[in-house]
């Protein structure tokens, strides 16, 4: 793939215009600690697929001994788990599994109880959809698709309260809540959709998001997000709240997005970034440094990554003012550079390109087709079998020691 350097440069030169909103920076601060890390560094993982894999017969081993996946992760230094929740997955992702709707309320409560019983930090990520909500699609749940906008805002708040209330009642109080998944371009399209302000350099992304005539815009997005954020604080007093932008590599877009939300009074504690790929080496470091300078009442963390494990974690841990809260590797049992092996080889699909010039990482534009690119490999429909912890576990043990999370 050839990167359009002129389009990318146009995005960079637009920075002063897009970020020139000084009043936004003072709007609605919420953090009580100046955005600094509120506790130990979060060495985390998103393992929402685990209940589904266990139902398919997955078993997890470390040093030849079968153990609970949470015990294995804890032994490697992980101290935080993130799980996602859909609205009615039996109408979407779990259409073929109606007796076991994956990432629905009942399964989320059960998994959350396991996480808290293991003594780990718990983050709940709301998708506000019946299936995947990601940069390429943010579809409304079937039950909400015909609601007028005011009723849609209410539905967001009601659903958030329902899920969090059930967790609290079950003794699985979350420590952090993420309102929306990878919502760089908004959520609950088209009402809460926002178009790109400048090209990203990724042709799969730019083709979908540069021209969106029916986008509801930031005013509507702000109301939808505030409904979820307010409901979170009401239901779980003191919980940390966050939003999720998938373009951690693109400071121009991140700052425009942040300024636009803050100027509309959206109140949250931290921003999560996806960090799968860069346009140029140093993009993530640039975003983290400038975020800390510009948004002093907010922390940040990496909500998703896979490859470059040590590099990404060190960037976040070493952020000035301890504004980097932590990281969550995405589905590390079977995605990209997995930390488990199956049948003597890595259980994931393997590492992906670090730079856009090396090829597009599909994690940045899920499901997108690049003209001329070979078709993607079909995904396995079942993930049972034996999973053995691999050498990446020692890397995490070392990071846990270096970050003061473990001794010895």
Features:
eight-stranded parallel beta barrel, TIM Barrel, TAT_signal, 16% strand, 408 residues, alpha/beta, disordered N terminus
Report what the structure shows:
The chain has 408 residues and is of the alpha/beta class. The chain has one domain: Glycosidases (TIM Barrel, Alpha-Beta Barrel), CATH 3.20.20. Helices cover 33% and strands 16% of the residues. Strands 1-4-5-6-9-10-11-12 form an eight-stranded parallel beta barrel, surrounded by four helices. β5, α7 and β6 form a beta-alpha-beta unit. α7 runs parallel beside α9.
Report a brief summary of the structure.
The chain has 408 residues and is α/β, with parallel strands linked by helices. It has 13 helices and 15 strands. The strands form 3 sheets. The chain has an 8-stranded parallel β-barrel, surrounded by 4 helices. A 5-stranded mixed β-sheet has the order 3-2-15-13-14. A two-stranded antiparallel ribbon has the order 7-8.
